[in-house]
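Q: Convert this sequence to structure tokens.
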Amino acid sequence: MKTMPPIVVLAGGLGTRLYPITETAPKAMLEVASRPFIAHQLALFARHGIEKAIYCVGHLGEQIESFVGDGSRFGVDVRYSYDGDRLRGTGGAVRNALPLAGDEFLVTYGDSYLDIAYAPVVEAFRKSGTPALMTVFRNDGQWDTSNVEYQNGKIIAYEKKPLTPRMQHIDYGLLVMHREVFDAWESEEPLDLSTVLGGLVEAEKLSGFETTTRFYEIGSLDGIADLDAHLNKMK
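A:
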């Protein structure tokens, strides 16, 4: 298999669900299993062969850069893409990072811990013939609201309202994309990633990859406790 592509990490959110903790520290720097979360995330990337990460940062992003630096002590080459003086939205943040990401890249979130093999996801993307791939998990409403209809390697519907009984999967939080996806979104206006993905679904250009490994996230106190227990158990 070819070299793993870089991963773009969306870490610029305000973390309002965790106020007041995130008023003084970004989510990526919250302590989980005795270390800042981002240390665990970078170790995960390195373990799965990802050599380069671009962190899209905004709110208190300088704390992340101060702690991580160039990423060498974590075994990952880390670069930073700052939102600037205004929020760009998740899609706008990815678009802003394109000069650092290159033609092909993974996308995930700064509060997600997804301990799966990344290489098969990338391989499925390269074989799909589509400009983007979404990793999905059969959720059945267990962890969050199921928002994806997935069939035979294709995303049939995503975040359509109202949600339908056919939506038994959830967006896992890991994408693979080609930069051409953003050719139609060249404006500097704020852009949500869900808008980009919705357009791809309508054009039948979003493939899917199903994983059976549950996801962890630190977007809530319950999520932090869950991941803390999991990482301590893995020790």
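The chain has a mean pLDDT of 89.
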